[in-house]
Amino acid sequence: MWVQDFEGRDDQPPDSRVWTYDLGGGGWGDGQRQVYTGDAANADLDGAGHLRITARREVDNTITSARLTTRTSFATRYGRIEARIKVPGGRGTWPAFWMLGADIDEVGWPACGEIDVMEHVGTEPRRCCGTLHGPGYSGLAGGVGAAIDAGTDLSEDFHDYAVLWDESGITWLLDDREHHRLTRSDVPGPWPFDHPFFLLVNLAIGGDWPELDTDTPDLPAVLLVDRISVDELD
């Protein structure tokens, strides 16, 4: 089993042997407002066993945040992929734990495939979404997936977000509760989910997601990640 538990001193950066950073702004394809950095002010350990991703407004009014990836260190095909996360909540927040096909440099997106294990928007505090993106079904209007009403404000505590992924399909779970499943027959195009994928975790601010309130985002906002694990199939 591959595990990241984020033990370390307060203000220490996450393990650079595992995590690298996607950098920059420009909206990231759907109008997001943040600029991603590699600064400790946006991604560090909190000294209590958590990765802390902080979105903040800088003195020049720029919103900064972080997007971490295992693109250069780790990828997996099939298994249980899980993260224990406390989302920030609040207006304008859009945290996600997700995966991209490791062949993205060769084939591009969405041909590489994208598995969104968890996405959450702060203005819908009880709901999280799990989605697939592939050729012919990608983007905010085109991805195939579903949302679950957790019955509680997800920002109030840590929750376990997971997928069970094998050659027959992908199942989403919230706190071990299965909430939907997708197979090849459920998507209107190719099924690019049979090769290795790497992991990403990020905190976006604003964007074109319909439920986002982006005019006055609640900042600073903090996403805490207690653990990320991958239990690969034999």
UniProtKB/TrEMBL annotation:
It holds the Pfam family Glyco_hydro_16. Residues 4-234 form the GH16 domain. One of its GO terms (molecular function) is hydrolase activity, hydrolyzing O-glycosyl compounds. Keywords: Hydrolase. InterPro entries: Beta-glucanase-like, ConA-like_dom_sf, Glycosyl_Hydrlase_16. It comes from the Bacteria. GO terms for biological process: carbohydrate metabolic process. The keyword Hydrolase applies. Belongs to the glycosyl hydrolase 16 family. This is Hydrolase. It comes from Nocardioides currus. The lineage of its organism: Bacteria, Bacillati, Actinomycetota, Actinomycetes, Propionibacteriales.
